[in-house]
Amino acid sequence: MTGTDGTLTGKAMTLTSGEPHGGLTVAFWATLKRDLVLLLRRRSEVMNPLVFFAIVITLFPIGISPDPQLLAAIAPGLLWVAALLAALLSLDSLFRADYDDGSLEQLLLTPQPLALLALAKVAVHWLLTGLPLALMAPLLGIMLALPAGSYAVLAVSLALGSASLSLIGAIGAALTVGLSRGGVLLSLLVLPLYIPVLIFGAGAVQAAILGDGVMAHLAILGALLALALILAPLAIAASLRISING
Amino acid sequence: MWAFIHKLGSPKWFYGISARLQPWFWVAALILIVVGSIWGLAFAPADYQQGNSFRIIYVHVPAAFLAQSIFVSMAVSAVIFMVWKIKIADMAAAVMAPLGAAMTFVALFSGAVWGVPTWGTWWMWDARLTSMLILLFLYLGVIALRGAFTSRDSASRAASVLAMVGVINIPIIKYSVDWWYTLHQPATFTITSRPTMPMEMWLPLLIMVLGFYSFFIALTLMRTRSEILRREANKRWVRELAGEAN
């Protein structure tokens, strides 16, 4: 500890000597940046959920009826369910590549808390899946004759809700990453936990169409997100440890 | 206190004590269920609105009670297993899951049968039916996850994490589904407040609920004992036990 003046307390000195400077924030941003770069170099993986979303939405008018009135009535639910499934589809690969090439083990070995690093990975998943889905949803809403005035609410509710979906889903992804065929199991574990988000997300759009206040729905979505933000990273970290050591 | 808990956690000791407890719970379950059924089905007065069809309550409500309590017991066992590494807790959680799923199914099925005379339909998307259905999916997820791992230790820990995540989500799911839609009659049975139904109807219901709980405890003890034998098959005391039996 050369160069530090004598006024530093012992506690501060052990902190600065034990960790690299600004360890926690640096590790978080480094993980975030690494994952962003990795995913942006595999564009098709980012595009696939969006294409899936568009195709599933196309199936409904073909399967049910092209009648705009009928479609308008079920559009909020359809858009939400399809976006939820698209986000779910991409979850399986959230930790898969890192698990296969061993970088997940390196994450476990870092001195920084695993929960925080997992949060960075989930944030990337949301940035490249949830957010694009939310931005794309109004476009598909037009095709489903979604009534005017609910487009902004649709995008906002999806952006808020998909963050919770990414967090909750990551628990399932972490639990199943060590299994060779975890995909179907992942949806079995995660979908029941998605129901509250779906209820309030689709409810917000429905309320916007009916002209009711949407703030209550959005506030509850925000509350769910706050809760998931606190608890899910811990569960993800515990699950990753189980999957790696198992 | 701690010594007692650790003693309880020893499979050998638990195997012995449960052998002594088990018959009492079986006897209690048998007496309570037989008395409750006969009283409830034959002697309790018919409902002034629903006639005799209300008697399904004597199966439906105890099963629904158990369905929820078993999930909570399973999650408590999971916490005990994860925090103190007590193997017995995990064995109990493992045998509880199928029983809980079965009880949830019984509650759903009896509810559907009850729905025909009262609502005129087998299935109604009302709040309590829906949250029971979601509870069934949560049970199936836990069972499937436990079955998916080849290593027993990973399976135990993964199922424990999922049980804990599930039990945090159950109230959220329940309230969001309640909010979503409610059509079911208000709760018919509470211990804390004065019963709204006449005493002659309520007492057999109480007896049935107690009988179902005794049945659950007896069955859990019995199945945990066989789970102990299966997992500890290589231990000396189990081999000695088998040697004596032959």
Detailed description of the structure:
The complex is a heterodimer of chains A (246) and B (246). Chain A has 10 helices and no strands. With 246 residues, chain A is mainly alpha-helical. Chain A has one domain (22-245). Chain A is elongated and about 55 Å long. In chain A, 45% of the residues are buried. Chain B has one domain. Chain B has 8 helices and no strands. In chain B, helix 2 (11-43) runs antiparallel to helix 7 and helix 4 packs antiparallel against helix 5 (127-148). The radius of gyration of chain B is 20 Å and the shape is globular. The interface between A and B is medium-sized, with 27 and 28 residues.
Number of structural units classed as domains of chain B: 1
Strand count, sense and barrel status of the largest sheet of chain A are: none
The total strand number of chain A stands at 0
**Biggest interface found:** A-B, 27 and 28 residues
- Structural class label of chain B: mainly alpha
The rough form of chain A would be described as: elongated
SS field, number of helical segments of chain B? 8
Based on DSSP secondary structure assignment, what is the total number of beta strands of chain B?
A: 0
Strand content of chain B: under 5%
Radius of gyration of chain B (CA) equals 20 Å
Count of runs of 4 or more consecutive helical residues of chain A: 10
Shape of chain B: globular
Q: What is the helix content of chain A? A: over 70%
Radius of gyration of chain A, rounded? 21 Å
Low-confidence stretches of chain A at least 5 residues in length (pLDDT < 50)? 1-18
Q: How many structural units, i.e. domains of chain A?
A: 1
Protein name (chain B): Heme exporter protein C
Family (chain B): Belongs to the CcmC/CycZ/HelC family.
GO molecular function (chain B): heme binding; heme transmembrane transporter activity
Function (chain B): Required for the export of heme to the periplasm for the biogenesis of c-type cytochromes.
